[in-house]
Specification:
Helix content of chain A: 40-55%
Number of strands of chain A: 13
Largest interface: A-B, 24 and 24 residues
Oligomer: homodimer
Strand order of the largest sheet of chain A: 1-4-5-13
Strand content of chain A: 15-25%
Distance between the termini of chain A: 38 Å
Shape of chain A: globular
CATH superfamily of the largest domain in chain A: Nucleoside phosphorylase/phosphoribosyltransferase catalytic domain
CATH architecture of the largest domain in chain A: 3-Layer(aba) Sandwich
Largest sheet of chain A: 4 strands, mixed
Radius of gyration of chain A: 22 Å
Order of helices and strands of chain A: HHHHEHEHHEHHEHEEHHHHHEEHEEEHEE
Structural class of chain A: alpha/beta
CATH topology of the largest domain in chain A: Pyrimidine Nucleoside Phosphorylase, Chain A, domain 2
């Protein structure tokens, strides 16, 4: 078997066998196949795609390149949620305790902020004392005792993905549906979940800008995940404006507490309940989405979900008293107000530009080694479709330092559009794709 | 400027600027841009192509990566011919002295046999004593005194092509019209010719199997060559059966002598005269193709062309007496006859299979370091469309050793088809593409 023949086969649009994909990818991870052959294969895949069978092969080969989370001996079901990343997307934080309170285990591995998208680990670490690098034993204990735990990925999980992603990043081969699918799924399956609910974001602040692209990725995730024997659902959701009224690290912890007290922003509550309902259905705890929604609302109303969140904070080193003391007051001293330049209706709060402005403020980072600020971010007073009068406060910006405010303000101001008429209504949940 | 952005631009189908192509290719040759980025760019070019302006940029950058033949101080015009490679393609050998005898200088740099295609240098070196590695001063002297000289390329000519070709060869990016164009043209322009006649072969024994592919390459060569200020013509010719009656190294020297004596095979004479006529037109020595043809026929009839060939052989160390003594008798002792299995008409002598059988016999080579045999090859008694009776001799095979005969015979036998009816007539010269 020669690498060049396999590259040519893909280049010519034929389907590669499991053995051929294994030859190249395992060989690459072992250092036997040179990167210049893999990068030309990746570009050929960018143009010619992969069948569900090929994508499942690639995902399995990547998955088997590293460690898998050992959940043996713990009673399931294990259901996880994965978001393709957005702005103000704190959904994982209230969702995990709500679903756990309903009796479904959530082994959640999250990521960090990069570029304009936020990171669950960075938000959690804004809680004083909270740590996110759990040993396997601590992670297992959290799942057993609280029904969920929150951690980051170790370098031993899917090393093939790290090597391939680094190569894709410098060879313009990131934006390929099968390669994205294998990258996401290999990591999620390595976490040991029986089922996964994907929140595939769509719009300016999302990786997938158009509904067509989001639908392609969602379909590929569901088809490939199903081919690997997992229960998979994908929910396509709007990411053309930030989720909720707060974008930041500790700011989103505050909104998480609001949610768990049943008084979170409408869009955040809607999405948490929808994704939670799906997780309960996949976990066999609810017969259908309506029943799932009722269960989720119950554990919020009863305070059980909030209680589990506190238990998790405490277990992972967070100081609950300090968190509650700082709630709604812990803000950077570097403040700038964004006010309406004219009267009208807010027709757009562009999520990408808010996300990029957030990088200036210190919410996110451009390079993985950069630090983030717990107290930086945005507090919005208005959302899309709201009426605003000239000079009225739309948002308050909190920056990590004084210099960050000017560029962030300029970018945030350009994210805002005001129109004379009420903009057309838009849905938050756009489509749902299941394996049936 | 970042390499990944340039790769992405090409991947998305946009036109790269000269500066962008220069950044990547010059950087690659200097070792500053890694091969894994170049290979993904090459694959993107395979799928998205290049405009004539991009191809001209690439060609110029490759050209300037190395030495150019210094023909300064020699009176022109300098016109060269380049064939994309075939089987039995000895055209350069009679063509150069014919054109030189008509007053056009031919600075000819040729290649070696590889795979099923033959090599002019290997054929010349079958003349006892002939050497093909000329110093620049000897090459210049040959052109000044004989009107032409025959040499190989030094490693200092277009080093970028050697590096890029080696990468293309292992990344399935060889078959790209703009990349082939830049590879061919950069080397031809480095030779210093003012005009180039391309013989673009088409058919089983050619690199381009279909007329569409051959036309694409021919059009690209003419467009790019013209954009670089050269006079360029491309002649599309049939390579579905070998040219002439002899395929081999010394065997093709014999057929060259036949041509220069005006009694070569019809197809070889036709092609030599057509390409020669074009070279005279490009060189301004003939007003049109008809006049060019008359001039070519004259220098053959007068013996001037044969005389120049002898002068060249002598100048490059060849022993004329020995060459003429061995003519039509110097054959390998390992012989096998290929006879008609039934009566009918020869409907096919597949050039690719004959070429590959020739590699077994020792005419060509699979790896550049392999040696070739001067006395191996085929002598055909029949050509396509000829009537054959069962048992009649179609061809005689001469092998470098006894073991080579069996596999070569099997392959050559499979190249032959016999039909009951006369096969449809087919043209040798299929199309001609000029810059107008």
């Amino acid at each position: 078997m020669r690498a060049v023949d396999i590259i040519m086969k893909k280049r010519n649009g034929a389907e590669l066998s499991d053995v051929e994909i294994r030859f190249l990818i395992e060989g690459y991870v072992k250092g036997e196949i040179p990167d210049y052959q893999v990068s030309s294969l990746l570009m050929a895949i960018f143009f010619k795609g992969m069948t569900p069978a090929e994508t499942a092969s690639l995902t399995n080969i990547m998955l088997n390149s590293g460690d898998r989370m050992d959940l043996s001996g713990i009673a399931g079901p294990f259901i996880d949620k994965h978001s393709t990343g957005g702005v103000g997307d704190k959904i994982s934080l209230p969702l995990a305790p709500i679903v756990a309170a309903c009796g479904v285990k959530v082994p959640m591995m999250s990521g960090r902020a990069l570029g304009h998208t936020g990171g669950t680990l960075d938000k959690l670490e804004s809680i004083p004392g909270y740590f996110t690098s759990l040993e396997l034993s601590a992670f297992r204990k959290g799942i057993i005792e609280d029904g969920f735990a929150m951690t980051g990925q170790t370098s031993r999980v899917v090393p093939a993905d790290k090597k391939l992603y680094a190569l894709r990043d410098v060879t313009a081969t990131v934006e390929s549906i099968p390669l994205i699918t294998a990258s996401i799924l290999s990591k999620k399956v390595a976490e040991g979940a029986d089922g996964i609910v994907f929140d595939v974001k769509c719009g300016s602040g999302a990786f997938m800008k158009t509904l067509d692209d989001a639908r392609s990725l969602a379909t590929s995730l569901v088809a490939t995940g199903s081919a690997m024997g997992k229960q998979v659902v994908a929910v396509l959701t709007d990411m053309s404006q930030p989720l909720g009224y707060k974008v930041g690290n500790f700011l989103e912890i505050e909104e998480t507490l609001d949610c768990l007290e049943g008084k979170g922003p409408g869009d955040v509550m809607e999405l948490v309940y929808r994704l939670g309902s799906w997780m309960l259905v996949l976990g066999g705890v609810a017969k259908n989405l309506d029943e799932g929604r009722v269960r989720c609302e119950e554990v919020v109303a009863s305070g059980e979900a909030l209680d589990l969140f506190y238990r998790n904070v405490s277990r992972q080193g967070g100081n609950i008293a300090e968190m509650l003391y700082r709630r709604n007051t812990w803000r950077s001293e570097h403040v700038r107000e964004l006010r309406a330049e004219r009267s009208g209706y807010l027709s757009s709060i562009d999520a990408l530009e808010i996300g990029l402005a957030g990088v200036y403020l210190g919410v996110g980072r451009n390079r993985t080694e950069d630090a983030v600020s717990p107290t930086a971010g945005f507090v919005f007073n208005k959302k899309r479709s709201d009426r605003v009068e000239k000079g009225e406060l739309i948002a308050t910006l909190y920056g990590k330092d004084e210099e960050s405010l000017e560029p962030a303000y300029t970018m945030a101001a350009s994210a805002i559009s005001i129109s004379d008429s009420v903009p057309p209504a838009s849905a938050l949940i756009l489509e749902e794709i299941t394996s049936q």
